[in-house]
Every structure is written in structure tokens, then in C-alpha cells.
């Protein structure tokens, strides 16, 4: 695309050097990835300032650069007030507004986003729709998998990926939308058709200044819903009305609302809920009828996740029978309440609970069904909300007979300082601290005997441990399996 066509969508800019005949091959925001003929967009990040890498981008062959600070260059340079915003608009334009070509579903909330994404995928696949997914575990286009660095990647990665989805002819795309992404504008330029709100509880107070600010960020998905009119079908906000924050979310959108819940009157409700150790049965009540559902997903929180997915299905007029058959086929979601092992006389569960609310939810389910002792291995991530550390520790101690506190992803923090934040001031003392996560898992598996339940929380599907800036190969499920095999040898 020609540079002057790319910048034609920007309301304000100042161009230095002639831009008329410059052809742009690709858009890049990382100087290390720039190739001959690319447009390099300088982003002032949290760690470094992209403007510092202009020379490298030029040496790699950049045809032009876009900046938000005056710089001295000898190639076509575009100066804008805000290069992150410009990047989002330019990326959408460069890739021909891919999200106007299929319905886009965005899912936000503190817990349940990944789970709901895969439930929605299953329902849509049941209708033989081709789907694309972007979220915590990976990007998935049809059956092709791609790694992602963030739950919601930056605007350039997003628009490029949606373009791939158009090429693959997806019928719809489903994505998790994190509060960070909304706050940083990674989803500017996305044309959402359905937005889901699952719940709000404490997390990310390292980034958001308080819970109100966190909620404000979440609400941006709903104010962004339907702000373009390229698509003709109606837009929907799917909202959990049992969550105390639902009202603020409702007030953030001018679009149609589909409510769901169990305790408050809603368009979609679950009644006669039977929570069993290996199954969840409920009556699904909707405005088009009711049907019974028997799911292999465990726990009340998964009833809510299923209702959210039903809300999305309702926005697309998917028949109840199809929804039921999809929900009943799902055996589980990677790293979410995932059983490990098989023949051992105790139960081992790996779960991605890394917030106080999710840990409490999962432990409530385990408490309900555990016949004997409950053992928990848990830690907290470094460079993340410190205030959740003592809360998660207290929750683990409240439900478990013994807790092994260990490292999660310490990142750049001292692992022993994170553990100190967790245990400092705890009244209950039935815990051990084993910083090395592998040893902690071996210890807990050795402790377990007949009919006990072991919960290994926090890392779920993750296949690495991030210590300092290094990613080490690490998978809780793999280590737990090895520990079970070697137990008693
Ligand atoms: C705090 C934060 O969100 N940081 C994100 C941000 O990184 P950053 O601002 O530090 O980037 P930077 O390293 O300063 O680089 C600035 C610019 O210089 C460029 N650069 C850099 C080096 C170089 O040699 N040349 C060069 O051009 C970079 O490409 C970039 O354009 O931009 C990066 C690229 O988009 C993100 O990957 C990164 O997410 C980091 C990894 C992260 O951990 N983010 C977390 C907090 C996050 O966003 N989490 C939410 C999920 C939360 C949840 O749901 O629980 C998420 O959506 O993932
Ligand atoms: N609706 C829910 N309410 C509370 N806890 C939940 C809910 N759904 C799942 N959980 C718990 O939260 C954990 C994470 O679930 P999931 O990965 O679906 O959430 P997420 O919102 O995608 O998380 P992330 O913010 O890391 O992307 C699960 O392993 C489970 O312990
Ligand atoms: N999306 C969450 C994931 C946390 C997972 C946990 N294992 C950790 O590293 O803290 C975050 O980036 O805060
Ligand atoms: Mg997720």
C-alpha cells in the first residue's frame, strides 16, 4: 500500500520528506523485525522507547517511519500526536478492516474468559461455523495453532491475525479482551458485535489504580461495542447480572443487552442446578424455551461460564438443541480443573486459579467433594498485584489441610520475597515453603494418600516458568505425572 494512502486515514499528521511515491511493504512496531520497504512505527513503551531504535530500523531498510516526537531523519517521516492510536488505525486500514468482514465476539471479566471462549467455539463449531480464537492459551485459526505473548495482543498483531482469519474464511472470531488491552488501546480498530462480561473481582491492582479504575477499563469494551456501522446485524452485550458490577457495564453500552444469572431475574438462567463430583446438571431457561444440560465441567463457576456462552449463542439465534449438544460434548479446557494421572488412589487437579476469587471458587468445589485431606500447592506471580498475595495464601489455608507455598512465575522479583508477602501475618500455620516448584509438587504428591485431593494452582496450561527474564520449560501436569509415577519407588 502507498504511504499516502496509509496516512490518509489519520486526522492530524505532519509529513517530512515526500510521501507520495513511497510504497510500504509491511507495518512493523519492532525495529528488529523491520525489512526492506517497511513502515516502522515508534511506540514509547513501559520498558524502552521505540524512538531510540530508528537507526536500526533504517539500517534494516525501513521505507518510512512514524513518530510521536520530533526526530532527525533522512527518510519519509510522519509525526502524529499519539503513535499507539495511529498504529491501531493504520493497522486496521492496512489490513482492510478485517473485523468488519465477520462477526467479532469479545469476552472480558476477571475470571472465565478463556473458558467461555472455548465454550463459544464448541457451540459455533457444532453449527459447522469456521472459527478463529485469540486468547491466553494461543491463537487458533481453524485447527492451526499460533503462539501469543499476551492474552490480548497489540493492535498490529490483532489486525494482521484477523486478516489471516479473513483469508481462511472464518465465519466468526472469538477473543479474550483483557483490561490491560482495553486500557492501552490494543483493541482500537476492532469492530465488536458481541461483548461478554463474566465478572469482576480483585486482580491487576499493580496496573489499575483501584477497583473502580479496573472496572472502567473493562467497561471500555462495552462503550466500544457497535461504534462502527459497517455491519448491519444488531450488536449485543451479554452480561452476568449476578455480578455486583453489572449495572456499570450495562450503562456503558447503547446496544441490546442479553442478561444471564442464577440468582437475579435474567433472560438466560440456570435452575435446578445439581453439582456433582464428576458432572453438573441444570435446566437452561431462555427466552426461546428451556432444556436440560448435563455437562462434564465441574463447579458453579462453570455454570456461569456456560450461561455466558449461551448468551453469545442466543445473539446468533442458535437453536437450543445445538447448544445443548455442544455443551455436553466438552470434556474440559486445558489447564482448567484438569485431572492428572489416573490409577493413583488420590485425585490430582491442575488449575489456572491465580486470583483470590478463582482460587476460592475452585477450593469450594474441591471441599464439597473431598472425602479426606485437601493439599494445595500455590504461589503468586512476580511483577503483578502484590495485594492478592496474602489473600490467596489465606484462602489456601482456609480450605486445605496442608499448603505448600512455592514459586509461580517470579519474573524479575526475588522469589523468597514473594513467598514472604504470602505468608507474612497468616494466623494459620499448616504450611511449608518450598521455593522450587518441582520439589513442591513432588512433596505434595508424596503426602497424598487414599481419597485425598491435591490441587496444584496458578499455572494451568503454562508450559514454562518465567524466572528473571528467562523462560524455563515447566509444565505442572508433566511434573505431577512424573511425581505420581515415582511415588513409593
Ligand atoms: C506492561 C505491558 O503490558 N507491556 C506490554 C508492552 O510492552 P512494553 O511497553 O514494555 O514494550 P517495550 O519493550 O517498552 O517496547 C516499546 C516499543 O519498542 C519496540 N522495540 C523494542 C526493542 C527494540 O530493540 N526495538 C524496538 O523497536 C517494541 O517493539 C515496542 O514497540 O507491549 C508489548 C508488545 O505489545 C507487550 O507484549 C507487553 O506485555 C507484557 C509482556 C505483559 O506482561 N503484559 C501484561 C501485564 C498484560 O498485558 N497482561 C494482559 C492479561 C491480563 C489478564 O487477563 O490476566 C494481556 O492481555 O496479556
Ligand atoms: N466464571 C468464573 N468465576 C470464577 N472463577 C472462575 C470462573 N471461570 C473459571 N474460573 C477459575 O479461574 C481460572 C482461570 O479461568 P480462565 O482461564 O477461564 O479465566 P481467564 O479470565 O481467561 O483468566 P486470565 O485473566 O488469566 O486470562 C480457572 O482455572 C478457574 O479456577
Ligand atoms: N494473565 C495473568 C496470568 C497470571 C498467571 C500466573 N501464572 C502468573 O504468572 O502470575 C497475568 O499476566 O497476570
Ligand atoms: Mg484467559
Automatic annotation (TrEMBL):
Residues 107-313 form the Mur ligase central domain. The keyword Nucleotide-binding applies. UDP-N-acetyl-alpha-D-muramoyl-L-alanyl-D-glutamate binds at residues 31, 150-152, 178, 186. GO terms for cellular component: cytoplasm. InterPro entries: Mur-like_cat_sf, Mur_ligase_C, Mur_ligase_C_dom_sf, Mur_ligase_cen, Mur_ligase_N, MurE/MurF_N, UDP-N-AcMur-Glu-dNH2Pim_ligase. Pathway: Cell wall biogenesis; peptidoglycan biosynthesis. A motif (Meso-diaminopimelate recognition motif) lies at residues 408-411. Residues 25-95 form the Mur ligase N-terminal catalytic domain. Its cofactor is Mg(2+). Pfam families: Mur_ligase, Mur_ligase_C, Mur_ligase_M. Catalyzes the addition of meso-diaminopimelic acid to the nucleotide precursor UDP-N-acetylmuramoyl-L-alanyl-D-glutamate (UMAG) in the biosynthesis of bacterial cell-wall peptidoglycan. This is UDP-N-acetylmuramoyl-L-alanyl-D-glutamate--2,6-diaminopimelate ligase. It comes from Virgibacillus phasianinus. The gene is murE.
Amino acid at each position: 500500500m502507498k504511504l499516502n494512502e496509509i496516512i490518509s486515514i489519520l486526522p492530524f499528521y505532519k509529513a517530512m520528506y515526500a510521501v507520495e511515491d513511497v510504497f510500504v511493504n509491511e507495518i512493523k512496531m519492532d525495529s528488529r523485525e523491520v525489512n526492506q520497504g517497511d513502515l516502522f512505527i515508534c511506540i514509547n513503551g513501559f520498558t524502552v522507547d521505540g524512538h531510540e531504535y530508528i537507526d536500526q530500523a533504517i539500517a534494516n531498510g525501513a521505507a518510512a517511519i512514524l513518530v510521536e516526537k520530533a526526530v532527525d531523519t533522512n527518510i519519509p517521516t510522519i509525526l502524529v500526536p499519539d503513535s499507539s492510536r495511529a498504529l491501531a488505525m493504520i493497522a486496521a486500514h492496512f489490513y482492510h478492516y478485517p473485523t468488519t468482514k465477520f462477526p467479532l465476539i469479545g469476552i472480558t471479566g476477571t475470571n472465565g474468559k478463556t473458558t467461555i471462549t472455548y465454550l463459544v467455539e464448541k457451540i459455533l463449531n457444532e453449527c459447522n461455523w469456521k472459527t478463529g480464537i485469540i486468547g491466553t492459551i494461543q491463537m487458533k485459526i481453524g485447527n492451526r495453532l499460533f503462539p501469543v505473548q499476551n492474552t490480548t495482543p497489540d493492535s498490529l498483531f490483532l489486525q494482521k491475525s484477523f486478516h489471516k482469519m479473513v483469508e481462511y474464511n472464518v465465519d466468526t472470531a472469538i477473543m479474550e479482551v483483557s483490561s490491560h488491552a482495553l486500557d492501552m488501546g490494543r483493541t482500537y480498530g476492532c469492530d465488536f458485535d458481541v461483548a461478554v462480561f463474566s465478572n469482576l473481582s480483585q486482580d491487576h491492582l499493580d496496573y489499575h489504580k483501584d477497583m473502580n479504575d479496573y472496572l472502567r477499563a473493562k467497561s471500555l469494551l462495552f462503550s466500544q461495542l457497535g461504534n462502527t456501522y459497517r455491519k448491519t446485524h444488531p450488536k449485543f452485550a451479554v452480561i452476568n447480572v449476578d455480578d455486583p458490577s453489572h449495572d456499570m457495564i450495562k450503562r456503558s453500552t447503547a446496544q441490546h443487552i442479553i442478561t444471564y444469572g442464577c440468582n437475579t431475574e435474567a433472560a438466560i438462567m440456570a435452575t435446578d442446578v445439581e453439582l456433582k463430583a464428576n458432572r453438573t446438571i441444570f435446566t437452561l431457561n431462555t427466552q426461546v424455551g428451556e432444556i436440560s444440560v448435563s455437562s462434564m465441567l465441574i463447579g458453579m463457576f462453570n455454570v456461569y461460564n456456560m450461561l455466558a456462552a449461551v448468551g453469545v449463542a442466543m445473539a446468533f439465534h442458535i437453536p437450543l438443541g445445538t447448544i445443548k449438544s455442544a455443551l455436553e460434548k466438552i470434556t474440559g479446557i486445558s489447564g482448567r480443573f484438569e485431572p492428572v494421572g489416573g490409577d493413583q488412589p488420590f485425585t490430582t487437579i491442575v488449575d489456572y486459579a491465580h486470583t483470590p476469587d478463582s482460587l476460592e471458587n475452585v477450593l469450594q468445589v474441591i471441599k464439597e467433594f473431598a472425602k479426606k485431606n485437601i493439599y494445595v500447592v500455590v504461589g503468586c506471580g512476580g511483577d503483578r498485584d502484590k495485594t492478592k498475595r496474602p489473600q490467596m495464601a489465606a484462602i489456601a489455608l482456609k480450605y486445605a489441610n496442608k499448603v505448600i507455598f512455592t514459586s509461580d512465575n517470579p519474573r524479575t522479583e526475588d522469589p523468597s520475597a514473594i513467598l514472604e508477602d504470602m505468608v507474612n501475618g497468616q494466623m494459620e500455620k499448616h504450611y511449608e515453603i518450598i521455593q522450587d516448584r518441582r520439589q513442591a509438587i513432588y512433596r505434595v504428591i508424596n503426602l497424598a494418600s487414599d481419597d485425598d485431593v491435591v490441587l496444584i494452582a496458578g499455572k494451568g496450561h503454562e508450559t514454562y516458568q518465567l524466572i528473571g527474564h528467562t523462560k524455563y520449560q515447566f509444565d505442572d501436569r508433566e511434573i505431577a505425572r512424573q511425581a505420581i509415577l515415582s511415588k513409593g519407588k
